[in-house]
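Researcher: We're teaching a course module on how sequence relates to structure. For the next exercise, students receive a sequence and then see the predicted structure as tokens, so they can try to spot secondary structure elements on their own. Here is the exercise chain.
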Amino acid sequence: MRTIHLLIPIFLSTLTSCATTKSLEYFNALSKVEQSYLVCDNANFQKVMTRELRDKERYIDDYRRLLANEQQILQQGYRLVQSCETQFREITTCTERSNGRVQCITQRDPEDWYGTKVCKDVPVAIESNYVEKKISEYEGELAIAEIDIQGDMQRYEQARRNCIKRVHQNMSVLEAYEAYIQGTGPFE
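Model: And here is the predicted structure for the students to work with:
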């Protein structure tokens, strides 16, 4: 959950930078600090990094779901497995025999070529040692991924701060506008 809060500033800056391309007149009217943020938030590097961070967050969310699912299975003591079979329509034909009795025959409908797939959940006992091992693996993967994304966030934030500083201190308005239009903010 902590990583979601870390991604909010990136997401908001991406939304504001991707909304529309600003004109030179608009860009000129901004303060040097605002121009710096606009250049760096519109940089291709920033967009790629934001996408990578979102992908890693999805990866972490997937592992959280897997972990929660395995913990629930361990607590229940069983896993649900789908058992499916194809059922075909049947036709029942009844005839009266010579002795007065009625005889009925049920057979598969020759017009039903595909049938209907019918599935039901069947509980299957688990081996708790195996599930506990999976939980331990998922916890390890999750811990590594969370540390990894936090490191990436710190590196990205530092690179963004450096970009903003470089634009602010080293670029003219025209150079900054050109970098903004081309998406080439001075990230290292």
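Model: If you want an answer key for the exercise: Confidence is low (pLDDT under 50) at residues 1-19. Residues 79-125 form one domain.
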